[in-house]
Structures are given as C-alpha cells and as structure tokens.
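If your schedule permits, I should be very grateful for your opinion on a structural question. I would ask you to consider whether the tokens describe a fold that such a sequence might reasonably adopt. Thank you for your consideration; the sequence and its tokens are set out here.
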Amino acid sequence: MSIKIKGSPNKLQRSSESKVSSSAKKGNAAPSKGKGNASSDSVDLTDTASKLQQLEQALADIPVVDSGRVEAVTQSIDDGQYQINNEKIADRIISSENEINNKNKQL
C-alpha cells in the first residue's frame, strides 16, 4: 500500500510510509482488496497546512545569530568602546526571574 500526500515535502511522505510498513510488519494492516494490486490512498493538504509548511521553511532559513551584531560588539570590545550597563543587566535578570516565578505559580 502506498500513500501519496499532495502538497507535502518528501519528509512527511517517508514518515507515513514507515508508519504503514511498521503496522504491516505487526500484522495490523488491513488485507488488500483486489487482484494483488497495491491500493493507493492520497491526502490533500489544505491551504492553511501548505502555508504553515512555507512559514516553517522560512523560519528555518533565518539565521539564529545576527552575525552583523556579533561583529559590531566584537569590534567595540576590541576597540575598548563597549560599555556595560550593570543596572540594565540586573533589571533584566530580575524581570526574567519574575516571569519564571509567575509561570510556575500558574502550573
């Protein structure tokens, strides 16, 4: 039995095929009807699912690190121009801890 998924990358298709083959190995697959020909099922993804896949790919293409910003900070450190604002750092640490504590209280 083969499964064709329209509008989907091969990764999803391989995943579905492996699930089908693993259930077939366990004997859970329904017996095929017909004269020995493999049946073929298909799934059409909605426009929303297709757009979601496009967004996921676009996000995957965005670099995790802003190399321009890293270069600018590195240069300012090398030049001795980088200024550390201790109060700003402390305020953000406290804010982060408060957010974590609030989320833990909600659980």
The longest strand covers residues 2-6.
